[in-house]
Amino acid sequence: MNLLRTGKVKQVYEVDDDTLEFVFTDNISVFDKIIPSNIPCKGETLCRTAAFWFQVCRKAGIKTHFTELIPPNRMRVKRVDVIEDTSKINTSTVNYLIPLEFISRQYIAGSLFDRVRSGEISPKDLGFDENHEVKYGEKLPKPYYETTTKLEKVDRLLTREEALKISGLTEAELDHVFELVAKIDEIIDSEVGERMLIHVDGKKEFAMDAQRNIMLIDTFGTSDEDRWWDEDAYAAGECVELSKEAVRQYYRETGYFDELMAARKKGISEPDIPALPEEWIKKVQDLYIEMFERLTGESFR
Fold first, then answer.
1. How large is the angle between the packed helices 245-253 and 256-266, nearest 10 degrees?
2. Nearest CA to 174 among 155, 186, 157, 161?
3. pLDDT tens across the length of the chain (301 residues)
4. For residues 253 and 97, what is the distance between their CA atoms, to the nearest angstrom?
5. CA-to-CA distance for 219 and 11, rounded, in angstroms?
């Protein structure tokens, strides 16, 4: 097979003109940086979790690009074109990756909380009363949806007008994508609620097939793309991170995140991200295995 591209956590191979194979590595990345530490079994947990969700969505009538799981850490998918020059995409383009990431948030957490504190987003924007004091971990009155770039080096938030311009989607198609996101989140909530998990937020990606039907692609519902909290701990007033967010918090606590953001703001060379300590590697490995089992209801071994 021919290696087409290497991403932060997976490699993409060409099987034939119609099929790609994803190989999920044990790499881990945060803040668009690949950490110089491998997490044993991580790739397998992500691959098998993504395959689980694709099959659940297919049963619910949602079109996906997933065709086959090849244990332990490979899957095959339908191939679509990746068009780097978005000016070449229009409302008649077919069989292409929509160059957007669709983010849905159901609770106040992560960067959303940071943006509320900085005044970038108001309580009213999120559906609260104008004078409401937004607290970390609070459930949103309604899901909050955003779009970011997909093919740029660092993800960038987009307005609706910008998203339409670079994606080749019509107004109706963009609305339909968000309807699909909401439907998928309902499916996820129903599944994980049985295993005492809260689905906090996550991202999804889509493509147009050869007949310009919207198709769910890439991976979603894993410990990398989505944020999860333990339901019992949340009921007791604690937001226990059960995803890659735990690793992000580690780098926030060490001060690396602040250094990185300062460098990006100044437009200067970014500091290299340090490796994880050995005890953290084991801790994160155990977390990914535990979350595979809680997300899917299956035994890892």
1. 80
2. 161
3. 899 999 899 999 999 999 999 999 999 999 989 999 999 999 999 999 999 999 999 999 999 999 999 999 999 999 999 999 999 999 999 999 999 999 999 999 989 999 999 999 999 999 999 999 999 999 999 999 999 999 887 789 999 999 999 999 999 999 999 999 999 999 999 999 999 999 999 999 999 999 999 999 999 999 999 999 999 999 999 999 999 989 999 999 999 999 999 999 999 999 999 999 999 999 999 999 999 999 999 999 8
4. 36
5. 13
* Domains, the chain: 2-296 (3.30.470.20)
Cis amide linkage into residue 72, ω under 30° from 0: yes
Residue with tokens 């097939």: 209
Task: Identify the burial level of 203 via C-beta atoms within 10 angstroms of its C-beta, where 0-12 means exposed, 13-18 middle and 19 or more buried.
Answer: buried
Structure tokens at 3: 């290696």
Could you give the angle at the alpha carbon of 78 between the alpha carbons of 77 and 82, nearest 5°?
A: 105
pTM of the model: 0.92
39 CB neighbour count, 10 Å cutoff: 25
Spatial separation of the C-alpha atoms in residues 99 and 174, rounded to whole Å: 12
Q: Taking the mean position of all CA atoms in its chain, how far away is CA 33?
A: 15
Q: Which two tokens stand for residue 24?
A: 């999920």
Secondary structure of residue 169 in the 3-state scheme: coil
* Residue where the block lists tokens 């619910």: 60
Residue pair 217/97 in contact (Cβ under 8 Å)? The answer is yes
Alpha-carbon distance of 253 to 59, in angstroms, equals 42
Residue 156: C-alpha distances to residues 32, 84, 103, 131, 147 (Å): 12, 15, 12, 28, 8
CA distance 226 to 80: 24
Question: CA–CA separation, 128 vs 237, rounded Å?
Answer: 20
Which residues are 241's β-sheet partners? 229
